[in-house]
């Protein structure tokens, strides 16, 4: 290990592109997606809060997912937008640490939350008569708290071991403070960090993914036993939105953290990170609202109420 190290007070982010026209295009694109994300997720939270028909476990977890998505995208998107319009793309050291911690915590919490939502759908489809008894308030709150605690604990561990490393320079080839990008600045041996990232990936990504696969395996088995085509279609409909989000989120992250390394990996990492930071939080409320008749009905009810008041 080298004895000298760079004492960093700020990091320089290279961003997505150095071309001015490309940066302006990306600014408009990211700003549009960011605004849609804010409006969509806040609207989901308001609809679930205002409509009593949405006061059940499924929508409790959906509201928590929207809250986590808001926190995640707000930890990255505002700074990315500011940097797209500035020549100096710098971020203070402790702001970088906070950004990494927050994004990891929200991302980890979301994976565990998707696992909890898969269990909720399993109970709804396989044990419909006992759904409200099994998914009682205490269990829902316990699952929600467990998801957040697991996400924040993993993030704290990963953030500490990342920033304890001696750094050779302060130029991060990324648009945000991200674990793999920061590790590339290290002067010393990062084999321990690689092992911990692999363990973290298994615990935070593969365990919830396994729960999702197990739950949906049981769900598909139960649905295929339903005799009527209408009943099967309705059962699949209750799970389609969640399954779409699961494939989208797990697929992007598994590709980034558990996929093979190559010379193009750095640029691919940035594209996948952009998708997960901005695109996925924007699509989540759209997927759930457009495919969910109860959410659409709640939105119509609120709009009619405002129209009547006018």
From TrEMBL:
Residues 40-288 form the G-protein coupled receptors family 1 profile domain. This is Olfactory receptor. Keywords: Cell membrane, G-protein coupled receptor, Membrane, Olfaction, Receptor, Sensory transduction, Transducer, Transmembrane, Transmembrane helix. It is found in: Cell membrane. Its main location: membrane. It comes from Ursus americanus. It holds the Pfam family 7tm_4. Belongs to the G-protein coupled receptor 1 family. It is a multi-pass membrane protein. Putative odorant or sperm cell receptor. InterPro entries: GPCR_Rhodpsn, GPCR_Rhodpsn_7TM, Olfact_rcpt.
């Amino acid at each position: 290990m080298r004895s000298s190290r760079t004492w960093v007070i700020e990091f320089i982010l290279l961003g997505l592109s150095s071309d001015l026209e490309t940066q302006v295009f990306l600014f408009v694109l990211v700003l549009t997606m960011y605004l849609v994300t804010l409006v969509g997720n806040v609207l989901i939270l308001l609809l679930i809060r205002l409509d009593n028909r949405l006061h059940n476990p499924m929508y409790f977890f959906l509201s928590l997912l929207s809250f986590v998505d808001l926190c995640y995208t707000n930890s990255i998107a505002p700074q990315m937008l500011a940097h797209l319009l500035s020549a100096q793309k710098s971020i203070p050291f402790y702001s970088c640490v906070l950004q990494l911690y927050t994004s990891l915590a929200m991302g980890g919490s979301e994976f565990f939350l998707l696992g909890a939502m898969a269990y909720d759908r399993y109970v709804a489809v396989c044990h419909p008569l006992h759904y409200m008894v099994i998914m009682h308030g205490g269990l829902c709150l316990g699952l929600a708290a467990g998801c957040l605690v697991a996400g924040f604990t993993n993030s704290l561990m990963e953030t500490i071991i990342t920033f304890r490393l001696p750094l050779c320079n302060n130029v991060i080839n990324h648009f945000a403070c991200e674990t793999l990008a920061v590790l590339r600045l290290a002067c010393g041996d990062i084999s321990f960090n690689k092992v911990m990232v692999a363990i973290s990936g298994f615990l935070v990504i593969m365990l919830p993914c396994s729960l999702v696969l197990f739950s949906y395996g049981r769900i598909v088995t139960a649905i295929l036993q339903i005799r009527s085509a209408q009943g099967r279609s309705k059962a699949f409909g209750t799970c389609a939105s969640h399954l779409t989000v699961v494939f989208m989120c797990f697929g992007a992250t598994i590709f980034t953290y558990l996929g093979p390394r190559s010379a193009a990996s750095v640029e691919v990492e940035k594209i996948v990170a952009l998708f997960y930071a901005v695109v996925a939080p924007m699509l989540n409320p759209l997927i759930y609202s457009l495919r969910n008749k109860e959410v659409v009905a709640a939105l119509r009810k609120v709009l009619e109420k405002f129209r009547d008041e006018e």
